[in-house]
Write a structure and sequence with these properties.
By secondary structure, the protein is an alpha+beta fold. The protein folds into two domains: 252 residues, Beta Barrel (Thrombin, subunit H), CATH 2.40.10; 293 residues, no CATH class. Helix content is 32%, strand content 23%. The protein is built from 19 helices and 21 strands. Helix 2 crosses helix 18, helix 8 packs across helix 10 and helix 13 packs across helix 15. It is globular.
Amino acid sequence: MSPDEYLKNGLATCQTALSKAVLPIFERNGKYKKAVASSVLVVYASKFYLVTSAHVFDDSSELTIYSGGCLNKLPEGVLLGKSKDSEWDNVDIAIKQLSVNSVSVLAKNHAFIQLDNIANNIYSDASYAYMVLGYPNTRNRFEKEITPNILSAVFNEADSQAYTRLNTKKERDFILLVNSKDVADCFNPEREPQQLPKLNGISGGGVWMVGDFSKKGEGLLQPIPIGIVREYEIRQHALRVTRFQYIVKAINEFFSSDVRLNGVPEANSSLAGQPSIRPPKDERVRFNADYPPDTEFSAFGRLLQSKWRERKKYPIGKLGSFIDTEFAKANKANFLTDNIKQLVTNQISEAKIIGGLIGEPRIWNNLLSSQPLCFNLFGELHFNLDMATSFFTGLFPDRIDKVTSVKFEYSPGRGNDRYLGDYSAFDVFVEYDIADKKGFIGIEVKYAESLKEETEEKAIATFKERYAQLAFASGLFKTNSVDALKLPPLSQIWRDHLLSIATIQDYHTGFFVFLFPSGNKQCQIGVDRYRTNLSSEDERLSGFYPRHLEDFIFALHGLYKADWTKELKERYLGLSD
């Protein structure tokens, strides 16, 4: 493949994936509706938002988005740049928080850009190229079907003089060149730059850094989210872009951090001020779920599981969160579908042969265990790879084209020194294709764990020099970080991350997902501490992707409305439709 073909195909792949997160905004105009702006779907701290520019709402009384086969009115939100507050009077940001129902509908056909781990790096380099995705044609009428006229063009960053002329700061705004000799038409690199289409309606569109095109065929990057288009500066021939870092700052300031999902607080990067979620003692006692050593979240989760068991009328074990062992094994009552029950039976038989770690009777009778959760969340995807593809491309739109397998309790080589030389394994292992290359996701799932189940003594006794060697060779960890990483609460996260780093040798690409409920403070603290030992905050570089359980369950239920996905939400999150 020639360098130009490489760029053309790579950019087309970027557009296909990223455009799922970009929506047109429509305005009522008599009996017709017309597109007036663009918007981007984002998720931050397990909350879902639609973001655009505040000036979009200046002359429009009712704006809508198209989802679920119909036009839906936008929810209430925050319009910044309308007040005289010196901090926000020039930002021009509109943020609309989406309801659970809206997210479920949108997730069927769209994706959300993850902002939790967005790097603080202020990317600025003349050789980088940036993709802008939006809907510039405001005269398109909405009929029965939308045929979006999406702008997918590649730009270069403006020089420092442009920032000065526009009286802006790089920490907040990002400036891209338009209609200058530096604009590259990368879909036809041999042609001279042409006049771009009218950019009315591009406000609110998304901007991503996509590559270093001075390197031609070697310059394509995994897209890095930069921000949303604020306005087109005609005289300066530039697009003014509001950085996502500043949008995150606005979300933290204007949206309450203690919004709950039936009692589970939404987590953000700081846990300060979060309310307690430990259920009252009388309620725990009533449902046989009072276990004094529980953390706040394990007490909450234990009560959820105890209530679920009672609703199902399953016989109790030693606590309300346990099913009678004999009944549990005979009926496989810990699992939500017949497919999953058969999968677990097969996996246990296989584990006994290959040395896998699936504990009995825990897998059958312990409702609070994260291992049954793994099968209940991902088990049906093992049988339906089309569903798996829709699910994972929605969660990671820039990394996956097609899922080819979903495995459980998987290690590329137990006891093999090519990897870790121990018996570490991923709870879930997903193989996928991306642009004719093979990739993987190694997933570790936590529910009620505190990350201190392993004692310091055991962590020290089982530590292997191979861990330190691999960490040093990868270049992904800060100097002198091993002493902290080898001990709880970081040790298990580290071993699984190292296993993913070692597994890369068998694939073209791959990354590690650490999945946990946002209300589990111990896991959040562990993740925050673990990040401080990484040499880069950019998860695309570190390969470390912490994610919240709610996001995965919402995405799955949004894609596949079934009794078992509804029960998944009710059992593990305490949410009903």
